[in-house]
Amino acid sequence: AQKVTQAQTEISVVEKEDVTLDCVYETRDTTYYLFWYKQPPSGELVFLIRRNSFDEQNEISGRYSWNFQKSTSSFNFTITASQVVDSAVYFCALTLMTTDSWGKLQFGAGTQVVVTP
Amino acid sequence: DAGITQSPRHKVTETGTPVTLRCHQTENHRYMYWYRQDPGHGLRLIHYSYGVKDTDKGEVSDGYSVSRSKTEDFLLTLESATSSQTSVYFCAISESAGAYEQYFGPGTRLTVT
Fold first, then answer.
1. By the 8 A CB rule, do A37 and A103 touch?
2. pLDDT digit string (tens) for B68-102?
3. Across all residues in chain A, what is the average pLDDT?
4. Left if phi > 0, otherwise alpha if psi is -120 to 50, otherwise beta: which for B10?
5. Using CB atoms within 10 A as the burial measure, which of A25, B54, B67, B105 is most buried?
6. HSE value, Cβ hemisphere, 13 Å, CA-based, for B94
């Protein structure tokens, strides 16, 4: 069975600080996809990024960056120079590439990020 | 934004009553999903559909049933609601399974008293 662990329940930072969210996953399969979603206070879930298990390149999108390391089964997310609008719950998720698992996202419990002015 | 609506957005019901939640999409996506969100658990998959009349169980399917008679609609039914089914329910859609990201609806907050 697959498992996604987000050990940090809540992280509080002051605006302009950097914040890193940890995501550790467990799977015996070698082919899978990892995702990050954002859930702002309004409640909707917003897709942020998808990464497949073959591509360990880090990715940067504006103030967001992702560090994927298969050796440690981690897919960490960093927000640089945080802003109040970054306050949200962030979820890491995993899906396998096997036919019977396609589309079945396994979510972590989420990390609440609170950015204060 | 993906065209996904959920109805109702809020509902309070009593234990033992049947409840149906509706998810409607305008994207003509093949795959649709129902999740529940509870504190400490993230989102957990209840049921999903890979086409009209094609559905399958997810991680937490007990006490729930689904139906999909049209591409655009995916219904989630609680045959006899229990307090443990108090939750926020999200519908999601994806163009295909696997690699494709899922887009989520606004959610339905259900309270079973």
1. no
2. 999 999 999 999 999 999 999 999 999 876 667 89
3. 93
4. beta
5. B105
6. 17
